[in-house]
Amino acid sequence: MSYLTVKGLTKSFKDKRIIENLDFTIDDGEFITLLGPSGCGKSTLLRCIAGLEQIDYGEIYIDGKEVSREGPKRRGIGMVFQSYALFPNMTVRENIGFGLKMKRLNESERRKKVDRMMELVEITDKAESHIRELSGGQQQRVALARSLAVEPKILLLDEPLSALDAKVRKNLRLQLRNIQKQLKITTVFVTHDQEEALTLSDRILVFDKGGISQMGTPAEIYSLPKNEFVAGFIGNYNILTLEELVEISGARFDGELFAIRPEVISVYEEMAQNDGNDIEFRGIVEDIVVLGSILRCYLKVKNRKIIADMLNRKDNYFEKGKEVKVLISKKEISRIR
Predict the structure, then answer these.
(1) Number of domains the chain contains
(2) Are 277 and 227 in the same domain?
(3) 160 with 137: CB under 8 angstroms?
(4) Which CATH number do you get for residue 294?
(5) Do the beta carbons of residue 43 and residue 216 sit within 8 Å?
(6) Mean pLDDT within 48-57
(7) Are residues 277 and 141 in the same domain?
(8) Of the candidates 98, 243, 291, 300, which lies 20 to 30 Å from 170 by C-alpha distance?
(9) CB–CB of 92/168 below 8 Å?
C-alpha cells in the first residue's frame, strides 16, 4: 500500500531548477534510499518531504493526506541530520525526551518512552551523560532515538552516518536496519555511498540531476543498470561500446553500449575450457591492488583498460606485465543502450 506519494514535484532555487517533475511512491514500512552524487537534488527532496523547503509545483501525500503546503509539525515527520543537531546542555535522556516534552506528554509516560528508545538504540548506560561526553556513534544513536520517540509517520535520514569512521558506520547501519524492521516505520535515507544503499534498502532511487535515473531493488540496481550513469555510479562497471566489445572478443552483440561487472570477469594463466557461452581474449596485467578479501586486477586489452575483481588467493597474484587469459560469460554482459 502506498504510504508516501510524490507527484510532479518541482523545486528551484532562484533561476536554477533542482528537481524536475518528480513522481514516485513508497509503500508502508519500506526502507527507501535516495542515492546519488553531491548536488543531484536528493537532500533537497528530503527537505521538501519534511516541509523544510516549499515546493514550486506538485503534490506530496502522506498516508493518503496531501501535505504539500503543510508545515513540518503537521506532517508527522521524524528527521535525523548529518550534524545530529543535539542540545549540548542537555543529558541523553533530556535530548531524547525533548520532542515528547513539547507534545506535553506527562513525565511518567515520557520516561517510559525514553527508556524504551534508549534500550532500542543500546545507549541506556549513557542516560545521564551530556552530549559532549559521547562518541560520534553514540551521538548518532541519540539523534535517532529522539526522532523515533515521537512516533513519526515517516523517518527521514539525511546522510546520518557520513561523519563516522568506517567501522562505526558499518556497525550502526546494521543496527539502524534492524530497528527499522522492528518498528516497521517507513524510512527515506539519503546517501552518496553505494555500499550503504545496497546494504540497507528495500529499494533504491538513483538520482541524477534532479531526476530518478533508475528505481529498483538493490539486486536490480547493481546487476541490471538501465543506463550509463547508473552503471558508472554503482560499483566499478567496465563500460564498453559495441565496437570495443567486438574488437576485444570477436563475438557479435546487439546494442550500442554495454556494462560488465569486474567480479564476473575470470582471469587465468592458462585458458579454461570454454563451453561456447563465454567470450575469451588475452590481456596484459598492468597492476594488482589488494582490497581486503578482493584483488583488483587492472588489465590492458588492445589499448582498452579492463578491471577484474578476484578472490585474494595466492594463485591470483599475477606479475605486472604478464599476459593472461580472460573469460566472461555472455549472460553477464548488460546492454545499457
Answers:
(1) 2
(2) no
(3) no
(4) 2.40.50.140
(5) no
(6) 94
(7) no
(8) 98
(9) no
Q: Are residues 198 and 297 in the same domain?
A: no
The residue count for the chain = 337
**pTM, to two decimals:** 0.86
Say if residue 6 is in the same domain as residue 100.
yes
Query: C-alpha dihedral over 170, 173, 177, 183, to 10 degrees?
Result: 140
| CA neighbours closer than 13 Å in the CB half-sphere of residue 146 | 28
Percent of the chain whose predicted confidence (pLDDT) is above 90: 59
State which residues form the domain around 294. 261-331
118 — phi, psi (to 5°)? -65, -40
- Cβ contact 309:263 at 8 Å: yes
Q: What is the pLDDT of residue 96?
A: 93
- The verdict on 289 and 179 lying in the same domain is no
pLDDT band at 127 (very low <50, low <70, confident <90, very high): very high
Of 292, 330, 325, nearest to 311 (Cα)?
292
* H/E stretch holding 197: helix 194-200
Partners of 333 in the β-ladder: 260
Q: Are strands 16-27 and 2-13 parallel, antiparallel or unpaired?
A: antiparallel
Alpha carbon distance, N-terminus to C-terminus of the chain: 33
**Over 90: is that where the pLDDT of 171 sits?**
no
Buried b (16+ CB within 10 A) or exposed e, 289-323: eeeeeebbbbbebeeeebbbbbeeeeebebeeeee
CATH code of 10's domain: 3.40.50.300
Considering the domain architecture, whether residues 228 and 320 belong to the same structural domain is answered as: no
How is residue 88 written as a grid cell?
A: 549540548
124: Cβ contacts below 8 Å, ≥ 6 apart: 115, 118
Name the DSSP class of 177.
H
Q: Cell 539523534, residue?
A: 143
Q: C-alpha cell of 153? A: 509517520
- For Cα atoms 50, 54, 60, give the angle at the middle one, nearest 5 degrees: 55
Question: Rounded to an integer, what distance in angstroms lies between the CA atom of residue 243 and that of residue 266?
Answer: 22
**Which of 96, 224, 70, 75 shows the shortest CA–CA distance to 150?**
96
**Cell numbers at residue 102, please?**
513539547
